[in-house]
Amino acid sequence: MNRRVFIGRAAVGLTAIAAAKDVLGNADPIYGHHGLFYRQVKGWGVLDANRFPVNDCHEMVQDSRGRIFLLTNETRNNVLIYDTKGRLKASWGKEYPGAHGLSIAGEGSDQFLLITDTEKHQVYKTTLDGRVLMTLDYPQEAEIYANKDAYVPTETAVAPNGDIYVADGYGQQYILHYGADGKLKGWFGGRGEGDRFLDNAHGIAIDQRAGKPTLLVTDRTRCCFKRFSLAGELLEIIDLPGAGVCRPVIHGDRLYAAVLRSPDMNQANSGFVTILDKANKVVANIGGTEPIYEGGKLQVMTQSSPLFAHPHDVCVDKDENIYVAQWASGKVYPYKFERVAGKN
Cβ neighbours of residue 311 under 8 Å, at least 6 residues apart? Predict the structure, then answer.
């Protein structure tokens, strides 16, 4: 695979390349822009595929102990647990054929996972070792679905008060709002043409960077994130032209996302990873073109090197290293990208 360094256009490119060489002192490929540079850790997380196989590597999270949890729809081991060096620590799960969304919430020993299953049309709250604590079935009581097959949940997010939000990203495009006890409290969104509606509401996250928590929801077909209040009021649209983004991942002041395809959803093997700052401005892409703003408007972004096929999720550790899980990419294990030391 030709993994060349891609660092910007001429105006900032020479400075960025020189800075990368000064810090690294070697010729390893470096990816990124505007002070955010990364090097791939070759061979990270690769296991014996006969004993610990993966199919689609859908999502990854890190627990309070620093362990990395990978969710795959391979039913010989739905969950693989790594340390940050890529060594397998544990595995579990054989009952989630449509394993898709993986979220983590809670504190310390009270942390728990939320798993969405697109084939079973359910959401599961589990302990970190896989014991099921609660199951959210399809919301029949809402009377917005003809049957359970019309409900295909892809992602979850947990509010500060414990309420659970479920994105029906492969179904009717609603955001379902549950109490911490699993009782349905409401819904918003749904399929439609206006701004408040959604199309491929693939991911959802709680964003507290501005203080008051809000919901960031993926509108992947339209290449944007939409910000809603916790009550479902549309507050903002973050346009990302050319980027068919998966779920938003908040880490510190930045927003990270895997871009499944670019410049549109019909272009296979064309993904990259995008990084936004607190002002929701794209500052760097890994495997993608430099983000360029003209007249305050972000220009179309595309893949710049064939580093990824279909990146599906990112996980960011405490050292700001990035882990990338991929869908339909030849059953590859996750990739790790080290943040280049000395860059801000």
Answer: 246, 258, 259, 260, 271, 272, 273, 324, 325, 326, 327
> Which one, of 236, 231, 306, 316, lies nearest residue 2 by Cα?
306
pLDDT band at 342 (very low <50, low <70, confident <90, very high): low
* 27: number of Cβ within 10 Å: 8
Listed in sequence order, the DSSP H helices in the chain are: 10-24
Quote the mean pLDDT of the chain.
92
Question: Do the strands 57-62 and 68-72 form a parallel or antiparallel pair, or are they unpaired?
Answer: antiparallel
Closest C-alpha to 41, from 269, 328, 285, 317: 317
Q: What does the alpha-carbon distance between residue 104 and residue 313 come to, in Å, rounded to a whole number?
A: 14
Could you tell me which residues come within 8 angstroms of residue 155 by beta carbon, excluding any fewer than 6 positions away? Answer: 100, 101, 103, 116, 166, 167, 169, 202, 203, 204, 218, 247
d(CA 276, CA 265): 21
Residue ranges and CATH numbers for the domains of the chain are: 10-339 (2.120.10.30)
